[in-house]
Every structure is written in C-alpha cells, then in structure tokens.
Design goal:
With 252 residues, the chain is an alpha+beta fold. The strands form three sheets. A five-stranded antiparallel β-sheet has the order 7-8-9-10-11. It has a four-stranded antiparallel β-sheet with strand order 1-2-5-6. Helix 1 packs antiparallel against helix 2 and helix 4 packs parallel to helix 6. The radius of gyration is 27 Å and the shape is flat. The protein starts with a helix and ends with a helix. The mean pLDDT is 84.
C-alpha cells in the first residue's frame, strides 16, 4: 500500500470521488494510513542504517563544566526483529585547557564494561609532569566497541529466551521437550548473561558458559553422585554454539 503506484491510484480515486460526490469515502483514510506507514518505514530504515548518532545538548546546571556543553551518543539495538529502547551516553569536557572527552552520564546497563571501554578509547589527558607518551582519544572506536557490546549482550539474553521456549518454559501453552527427566528451569546465572543455569526435575543442576558471541566454552552438570557427563552429552551433543543447542532441544 505504500508503493508509489498504489499511492497514485489512491490519489486519483480520491480526486474523482470528491469531484462526483460529497459523501464519505475510505480513500482519504487509506491515504492517511499510507503516509503513516511510509513515515514508519523511513524511521525504521534510519534507525537500522544509522545505529549510532551524535547530538548536542546543554546541561541546565549553572555550575556545569565547559559551559554546560554536552555531546550525546544514541545507540540503536534490535532484538528479535524489534527495536529496543535506545541507549544514551553523555560526554563532556571537564579538563582545563584540553578538549578530551569524559563520560558524564549514561543509560547503559551496569553489566556492560563501559568504564573499561572509556579507559581504552577515551583516555584522560596526561599530567604536565608525566613523561608518558600522551594517548589520543578515538570517539569512533569507542562508539563501535560499545555498540558491539550492547548487541552481544542482547543476543545472549535473546538466545537464553530461545532456550526456554524450546524447552517449553516460556508459557503454559508451551510444549516441553520429551525427555526422560524434563528440564524445569533455564535462566541467566550472571548479569552479563554469559553463564546459563539449567535445572532438571530430579535435582540435577548445570552451568553452561558461553563466549561473547554465543560459542559454548564449557558446561558442567552436578548430580547426587558428582559430575554427570552423560547429561552434558545428551544436552549438547556435538554443539559448538548455543543456537545449535536450541535446535537440538526443539528436535528432541
């Protein structure tokens, strides 16, 4: 309905309709909906292509450094075909006689190593009595590295949700995997969602550790008699990534 050919047909029909009769018509409503859909598609395209945008704001605090000038960074992240709420990082210049930037405020989750990324890509200026070679700041590298961490974090949380869905734990209507001993819980065991807790109905519990990008690093299952390596083989098989485990549980 948002194609140019369809819009031309709707506009032509609306013009002819208004010329012949004054009665109500659905054509104006369709044109309005088409305009709204076009604007929505343009916004989604912009958010997908310009995943990091910069803007200027002013700190209302009268005692703010650098006259209240703030440089803002907006980070767009998509998960499961939907845009999430954007993340913001505010930067200012608190150093005298220096244009170096520093993180002032942010909405990034605490599990993201923002301070480490800032120390690496936005180092503070060196002191006058410091003989070390001054390090340059790289705002572009900082933005790319931070968005990469945000995307990785949301991908990990999303794949944990996929694991729960494949095991039938997300809703009452979900179908549990048909195994001798069903899994009763799958959840993140740490704030960074790099460790996954798996619990079985017979009391066994496991811990799966994955890398930044979803690769499986290690898994251990503890039962009444110690480590249960057979449960690890049944769950993982030859899987090297978490997505493969999801497909394996769905096919069980």
């Amino acid at each position: 309905m948002t194609s140019e050919s369809v819009r031309q047909v709707l506009q032509a029909g609306s013009t002819k309709r208004s010329a012949k009769t004054r009665g109500s018509s659905r054509l104006p409503e369709l044109l309005t909906r088409a305009d709204e859909q076009t604007a929505h598609k343009q916004q989604c395209l912009y958010r997908a292509c310009a995943s990091i945008t910069a803007f200027k704001v002013r700190d209302p605090d009268p005692n703010a450094v650098d006259g209240g000038n703030i440089l803002g960074l907006r980070f767009e992240v998509m998960s499961k075909a939907r845009f999430l709420r954007p993340y913001y990082v505010m930067l200012n210049r608190p150093y005298q006689s220096s244009r170096h930037l520093r993180v002032h405020r942010h909405t990034v989750p605490q599990c993201i190593p923002l301070s480490g990324l800032a120390a690496r890509h936005l180092p503070p200026p060196t002191a006058k009595d410091d003989y070390d070679i001054p390090r340059k700041q790289d705002l572009s590298s900082f933005g790319r590295a931070l968005r990469r961490e945000l995307v990785r974090y949301h991908n990990r949380t999303a794949v944990i949700g996929d694991l729960r869905s494949s095991a039938g734990l997300e809703s009452k209507k979900g179908k549990a995997a048909e195994t001798d001993v069903p899994i009763i819980d799958i959840s993140a065991a740490d704030a960074q969602a790099k460790q996954i807790r798996v619990e079985w109905s017979d009391g066994r519990s496991g811990r799966l550790i994955m890398g930044d990008d979803g690769d499986i690093l290690k898994m251990v299952v503890q039962g009444e008699n110690g480590q249960d390596r057979e449960a690890v083989r049944q769950l993982l098989g030859g899987s090297a990534r978490i997505e493969e485990v999801v497909k394996r549980i769905e096919g069980a």
